[in-house]
Amino acid sequence: MTRHLSKQIPAIYERYAHEWDADRNSGIWNDKKWHDRFITCLREGATVLDLGCGSALPVARHLVQHGLRVTGVDTSPTLIALCRKRLPDQEWVVSAMQAITLHRRFDGILGWDSFFFLTHDDQRNMFKVFAAHAAPSAFLMFNTGTEHGEAIGKYRGESLYHASLDAAEYQLLLDQFGFEVLEHVVEDPTAGGRTIWLARSRRQAGSTTSKPN
After folding, report:
1. 3-class state of residue 27 by DSSP
2. How many of the other CB atoms lie within 10 Å of CB of 27?
3. Can you state the angle between helices 17-24 and 77-86, rounded to 10 degrees?
4. Interatomic CA distance for residues 150 and 41, integer angstroms
5. What is the pLDDT of residues 132-148, one digit of tens each?
6. 155-170 burial, b for 16+ CB within 10 Å, e for fewer?
7. Residue 100 Cα distances to 47, 133, 151, 193, angstroms
8. Is the dihedral of CA 88, 131, 140, 187 positive or negative?
9. Cis bond before residue 58 (omega within 30° of 0)
10. N or C: which end of the chain has fewer CB within 10 A?
């Protein structure tokens, strides 16, 4: 499979930033139930790291409306500019999610409709990023494919790279980096067929963080 296409994802989203924003917000928000589920896990005022935040609509705005503090990360300067305009009191960072190092921890971490654009190795390495940014008992939610492989989708005529590990490897990585799976739903028909992982960090307040073997 043509993994080099994964390197084109940032350029595609920057090129079509306004079109993507319009498309994302033009129809029914069919994955809202999972963001509502994520919100119920967090106390008011909790901090959320939104990796691949897009234009802040609809997800980040919804989190903020429920009293959460958002730090959004996206590769597209245009999408981040929209975020800053719409939610200026939140924090917005132009960066690839796999390169982010903020030296602080969050109560919730999202990798929604973004994590699956990474190659297999980048996905594996992201669990170090998740662990490094997870506060004690933090919640992590991301969505994936259903089996190990690569696929090429389309957006406005452009080829979009997608990849997935298999469920057993995701489970292993979550366990290795200190996360307990709370929910795993495969191809949820009420959320556009998405496959969702919701996990919680096992690290407790006052504990020390050790590197996995």
Report:
1. coil
2. 7
3. 50
4. 32
5. 999 999 999 999 999 99
6. eeeeebbbbbbebeeb
7. 16, 9, 25, 29
8. positive
9. yes
10. C
Work out the burial of residue 106: count CB atoms within 10 Å of its CB; fewer than 13 is exposed, 13-18 middle, 19 or more buried: buried
- Inside any domain, residue 153: yes
In a domain, 26, yes or no: no
Q: Which domain holds residue 148?
A: 3-21+37-201
User: Residue 41's domain is classified under what CATH number?
Assistant: 3.40.50.150
Here the tokens at position 110 are: 């999202």
What's the one-letter identity of residue 38?
F
Choose among 131, 132, 97, 92: nearest CA to 112: 97
| Six token digits for residue 5 | 């296409």
Residue 189, Cα to own-chain centre: how many angstroms? 20
Q: What is the pTM of this model?
A: 0.94
How is residue 59 annotated by DSSP? H
